[in-house]
Amino acid sequence: MIKLAGTVTKAATTDSVTLEVAQTRTGEAIANPVFSLDRDPASTEPFVVDHDVSVQAGDRLEVRFKIDSPIDLTAIGFPPATLLHWQYASATNQDGLPVTVFDDAGQPLSIAVPFDIDTYGLRAPTIEQPTYVAPQSGTLRVFATVVEAPNTRVDFTIKRPGAFVAKRGFVMSGTVEVDVPVNQGDALFFDFSTREQSMALFTIVTEVRVTFDPDATSGALAPRLLHFRGPTERCPQLYRGWTYAGLNATKIPPGTPIPDDAFCHEPSSFDQNTQVPGDIDTVKNQGQQVNDDPAAFYDCMAFYPGGRRGLAVSDPVDGKFRILATHDFGRSWAVLPNDGMPEAPTEFGFAASGDCLVTAGNTAYLGSGGGAARVFRSDDHGLTWTATDSTIPPGDAAGVFALAFRTPNKGVAVGGDFADPATFDRWIDNVLGAKTASEVLS
Questions:
Q1: For the segment 247-273, what is each residue's pLDDT rounded down to a tens digit?
Q2: Which long-range contacts (CB under 8 A, 24 or more apart) does 72-79 make?
Q3: From CA 316, how far away is CA 364, in angstroms rounded?
Q4: Domains and CATH numbers, the chain
């Protein structure tokens, strides 16, 4: 038994906020909500949590603050003295016998809670929030229309500066009417928001029309925005709730809004040298099956600085090396087109080295053996490659075993012949931008 405990404060917001806990049982793929607390937009009541959840080893628990549209996130507070945490109430071992749930100081074992908050960092069109100003007093009839793909949810909200007015949800294409009492000069914001991130996002079409005519079935076009999450890979993959982002504020004029795309993740020595634990929660035991061709045999993989992009190489399929690519820290992979890969019908990679595929900056190198011993180079994340002959002798078990680079244009290739161990310490190539010059070591 594990307990979620802690307090999260809330000020008035422009949309409701729900604290939800979802549990994915071991061996299951669907997360089921097990606990939730709702707070209306005007509510300032804190989220006070003291809830027990029965768990088994391997269960996944996720805590999320669900919000249907952009709000001022500073309205949600996390006092240090009452931070959300998981606390063991009781536990048993694999034999069903009780085990201690207290530390050496007699305090209950607890874990700080990683959590997600729904945010909407991008918008279409990419402009500042447009405002509708009521030209007269009365009842404003608002007609909101959405055209969307099946199984897509879009929320429509009407807000005043700093205050919630109304909300309607769309689960299919359609039009809704919302009547809003206004005074002349009142400012209103009309917003559509979606959590959608698949291609369905690009099928969403929105429209808002307004009128004071009680008998009209439509009205004049009004300004509106569509808010959505945007790419989640801009920053490194979260590890137990931690990540970081960067902003070059010197490029932002004082007093102007910060463009969403100004936030970035820049490769640094932190990314390149820090060893991330091997049991990253979001990717553990979630490898995606992409080797659907029995002719493929994957030798090596390498990631670019920062870890978001990576490549994996298979021995030639249909006469060319096959390249897999990931753009999300290895959570999913796709086979790249082979149009830009040179023919290599008799070549292969040396999986035993682990370094037949390497990266240096934004450049990738691949070493081969077999019918030829070559060094391949790509400067566009694996889409196109050039090949240069190495003077390391090729052979049935010979060629370029491994590569290592100090810079994108300076490195070494090492190799030999597995059938002749005496060659293992004899062959090394200086690689200058994939132009090789052999040295025989004595």
A1: 555 566 666 666 655 555 444 434 444
A2: 72/13, 72/14, 73/117, 73/119, 75/10, 75/11, 75/12, 75/13, 76/8, 76/9, 76/10, 76/11, 76/13, 76/17, 76/117, 77/8, 77/9, 77/10, 77/11, 78/8, 78/9, 79/7, 79/9
A3: 17
A4: 2-117 (no CATH), 122-228 (2.60.120), 232-266 (no CATH), 298-440 (2.120.10.10)
